[in-house]
């Protein structure tokens, strides 16, 4: 009878074990009555009926079994948005299902033992029995230990560790829980025994550009709505030390680990951004900024920003390029069309010709062909200007002016005007140099065409003298009118006009002071010019030529050869032989 009852229990235990193993398939436990494999001779029925298998109702002291119980937190809440949370709601469902199944199995286990003990004299001791549920995502594991029966042995720490190893639980074992189960004999409860390490997503690197990678033409409109197609703003100028890009470095992702020791991958790896630093760029030590190492213009090609001090235009300056205003040097392989402007803080090198355009540079201006200004073209340089021809244009240079021909142009040089290569001819117009004028041919056989040559120590004195002379003429006119009004008001002696009279007298005093200042400055300029020692040289001088050296002047109406014009010790202009 005893052996038969044992067989009946072991059959039941095997059914319990199979039911526990089926939990991973999320099946609802359904246990059939288990019968002993043999009956005793007395015909006693050892069938385990359904009422034994039915779990007891959930009580208030078993919160894990209540449907509305609060979820059990596995991982502490975190404010870190990069932490890749697992589906803890699903884990909670799995935990509750496991708890219900373990409760059912516990009832079967205990009630079967009661039945067995009633039919035997000495019930067999049963050691504490662990069961485990590993979550579907392998990130959590719960344990349920059946309490020992009939004086059976408690579970020990080494038993638990061996059991977990057998179930391939390697990582994230909760040591405090494991030791509490063994030391405090915690049975018949669902406890979290292991939890994986959560992954942490990375952040891909990013770049904030301060300059356009693809330049979009921006046409300007005037107040009347007319579009200016010459100012395209298509050159991205940059100064040394200016920020080209701001870089946000990538934050690498961190993979998690399942309780079985496998990798739980993050979703975003945190890919570093490609650094678009090209020529004349510098990446800061912290890798967050790309800085311009030189002043120039920014372009983007082949995935990189580049800075070129020299702005190269492979073609003409026209509607396709618009006007240029550049902090650096400019090279133009073609022509500069009528009505456009080119400005640079450095040098300007034009391999074609220039029409009625405006060219301004702090450095030298070099034009391979020349300028046909059509009466509106201008060249202005703080250095020298060199070109083949200058026709119907205005030229100002603080350095020398070099040309093969100058025709009907207004040219001003802070040093020499040199027209000795090629034909080397100066015809018409007005030329002003601080030092010397040197040409092969000066003047024209067309006598009605006058060529004016001026040597002035400081070319800007000529402009200042003209401006001051005009101002002085206007000042004399204003003084004359004010004096007339003062005389009239003093004659009529009207009290209501006394304030006006006082104002006119104050204005008269101011204009008298200004008149003296202008007169003194004009005298100073004349004194400077009187010391001028510059020369005018030519192989052939054709009338009519008007010459002024300092304060002295001469009108030449006869042809001369190999001539040198200079001011002698008596202050007169003399024509000598070269």
TrEMBL record:
Residues annotated as domain Flagellar Assembly Protein A N-terminal region: 132-302
Region (Disordered) residue spans: 17-66
Basic and acidic residues composition-biased segments: 27-38
Highest taxon of the lineage: Bacteria
InterPro entries per UniProt: FapA, FapA_b_solenoid, FapA_N
Official protein name in the record: Flagellar Assembly Protein A N-terminal region domain-containing protein
Source organism (scientific name): Lacrimispora xylanisolvens
């Amino acid at each position: 009878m005893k052996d038969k009852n044992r067989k009946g229990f072991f059959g039941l235990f095997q059914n319990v074990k199979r039911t526990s193993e089926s939990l991973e398939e999320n099946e609802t436990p359904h246990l059939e009555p288990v019968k002993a494999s043999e009956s005793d001779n007395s015909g006693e029925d050892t069938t385990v009926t359904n009422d034994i298998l039915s779990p007891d109702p959930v009580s208030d002291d078993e919160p894990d079994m209540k449907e509305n119980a609060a979820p059990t937190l596995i991982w502490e809440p975190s404010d870190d948005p990069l932490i890749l949370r697992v589906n803890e709601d699903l884990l909670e469902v799995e935990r509750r299902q496991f708890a219900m199944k373990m409760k059912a199995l516990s009832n079967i286990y205990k009630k079967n033992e009661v039945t067995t003990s009633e039919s035997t004299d000495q019930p067999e001791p049963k050691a504490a029995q662990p069961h485990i549920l590993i979550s579907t995502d392998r990130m959590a594991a719960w344990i349920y230990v059946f309490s020992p029966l009939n004086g059976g042995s408690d579970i020990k720490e080494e038993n638990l560790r061996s059991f977990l190893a057998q179930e391939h639980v390697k990582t994230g074992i909760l040591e405090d829980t494991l030791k509490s189960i063994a030391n405090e004999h915690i049975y018949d409860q669902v406890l979290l025994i292991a939890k994986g390490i959560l992954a942490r997503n990375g952040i891909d690197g990013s770049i904030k550009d301060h300059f356009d990678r693809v330049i979009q033409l921006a046409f300007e409109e005037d107040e009347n709505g007319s579009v200016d197609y010459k100012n395209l703003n298509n050159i991205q100028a940059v100064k040394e030390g200016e920020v080209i890009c701001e870089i946000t470095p990538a934050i690498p992702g961190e993979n998690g680990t399942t309780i079985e020791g496998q990798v739980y991958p993050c979703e975003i790896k945190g890919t570093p951004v490609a650094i678009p630093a090209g020529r004349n760029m510098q990446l800061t030590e912290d890798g967050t900024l790309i800085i311009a190492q030189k002043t120039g213009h920014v372009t983007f090609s082949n995935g990189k920003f580049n800075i070129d001090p020299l702005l190269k235009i492979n073609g003409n300056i026209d509607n396709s390029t618009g006007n240029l205003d550049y902090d650096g040097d400019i090279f133009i392989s073609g022509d500069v069309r009528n009505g456009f402007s080119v400005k640079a803080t450095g040098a300007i090198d034009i391999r074609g010709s220039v029409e009625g355009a405006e060219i301004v540079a702090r450095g030298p201006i070099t034009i391979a062909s020349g300028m046909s200004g059509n009466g509106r073209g201008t060249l202005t340089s703080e250095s020298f200007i060199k070109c083949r021809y200058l026709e119907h244009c205005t030229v100002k240079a603080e350095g020398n002016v070099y040309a093969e021909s100058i025709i009907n142009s207004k040219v001003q040089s802070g040093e020499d005007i040199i027209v000795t290569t090629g034909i080397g001819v100066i015809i018409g117009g007005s030329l002003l140099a601080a030092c010397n004028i040197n040409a092969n041919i000066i003047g024209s056989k067309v006598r009605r065409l006058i060529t004016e040559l001026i040597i002035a120590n400081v070319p800007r004195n000529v402009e200042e003298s003209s401006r001051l002379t005009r101002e002085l003429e206007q000042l004399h006119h204003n003084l004359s009118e004010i004096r007339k009004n003062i005389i009239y008001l003093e004659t009529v002696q009207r009290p209501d006009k006394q304030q006006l009279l006082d104002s006119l007298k104050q204005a008269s005093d101011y204009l008298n002071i200004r008149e003296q200042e202008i007169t003194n400055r004009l005298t100073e300029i004349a004194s400077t010019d009187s010391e001028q020692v510059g020369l005018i040289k030519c192989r052939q001088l054709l009338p009519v030529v008007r010459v002024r050296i300092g304060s002295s002047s001469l009108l030449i109406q006869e042809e001369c050869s190999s001539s040198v014009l200079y001011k002698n010790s008596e202050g007169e202009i003399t024509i000598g032989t070269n």
